[in-house]
Amino acid sequence: MIRACDLADLPEGESVRVLGHVPIAVFHTEGQLYAIDDTCTHQDASLSDGWLEGCFVECPLHEASFDLRNGMPTCLPAKRPVRTYPVVVTDGVIYVDTTNIREGVA
């Protein structure tokens, strides 16, 4: 598990980029926490810098969109999913479980 941030430091509707083996974006939306690979599969852009709407994030570069729940792209130009990761909150700290990677599936 890698530490993302304190839960209090990630308000609803915001995201944080976590650097590790691969960059991971953690999103707080609709009362849930989601973690996905931070790099868009279409072109090298940080999804944590994208636009968050509900359970979807839009890439800031070419407007590809991904479902945070399963990593699947929802529109072109992205065709490949991003990986998702379980998120755990312990004692007010957000952790990402990088040992339990989930490949995007519908």
Automatic annotation (TrEMBL):
Keywords: 2Fe-2S, Dioxygenase, Iron, Iron-sulfur, Metal-binding, Oxidoreductase. The lineage of its organism: Bacteria, Bacillati, Actinomycetota, Actinomycetes, Pseudonocardiales. One of its GO terms (molecular function) is monooxygenase activity. Residues 2-96 form the Rieske domain. It comes from Amycolatopsis suaedae. This is Bifunctional 3-phenylpropionate/cinnamic acid dioxygenase ferredoxin subunit.
